[in-house]
Description:
GO terms for molecular function: phosphopantothenate--cysteine ligase activity; phosphopantothenoylcysteine decarboxylase activity. The chain is of the alpha/beta class.
Amino acid sequence: IGHRPLSGRHALVTAGPTHEPIDPVRYLANRSSGRQGFAIAGALAALGARVTLVAGPVTLPTPFGVDRIDVQTARQMAAAVATALPADVAVMVAAVADWHVAAAPQKMKKGDAPASLTLVENPDILAALSQGPDRPPLVIGFAAETERVIEHGVAKRIRKGCDWIVANDVSGDVMGGPDNSVHLVTADGVESWDNLPKEQVAARLAQRIADTL
Ligand code: C5P
């Protein structure tokens, strides 16, 4: 206890983008850097939690005291999350691809380039965890939005079945940048943390988690 209030607790964090192969040398991705999720994993470890960080492809060092599992695709991330359970708290920060591609087994050639990619929906890791049998007592999702951020966050909390949503405005250069502006959406209301370094968003969230568990 004291300044290590999460000792004896297991925290599960996802972070980063996913890469969804198109063929053996190409993939679909997004601009997530993993910085916010890695900072949260580090902040939870600093409060004494055992932390499992399931990370998509990023170029970040593993935070001190964190167990890291690297994955590429959303389906691999879902499997790694399932394997890491049970957990006392889950923070799903990863920018998971909504779809994967019906991938070509060999590198596609210019001549036979298809007119379109066939997209297949990925599993929703946060929704499955929130509504599944091994649900951690505290499940937290993120909502990256470019408009009506709070409104979408409130709706997403209900739709996914998680306890809290951290809604962040990604209309500026948040993705990959050092700072973040977030709205913490809980059953009790909304709290806004404006323009903080991602490390400070992480420290505040970790402290809030410690106060709640
Ligand atoms: O639906 P949307 O992608 O906006 O939801 C974002 C939240 O859901 C994030 O917490 C993200 O990590 C999680 N998510 C997930 N699996 C997906 C899609 C999103 O865990 N396939």
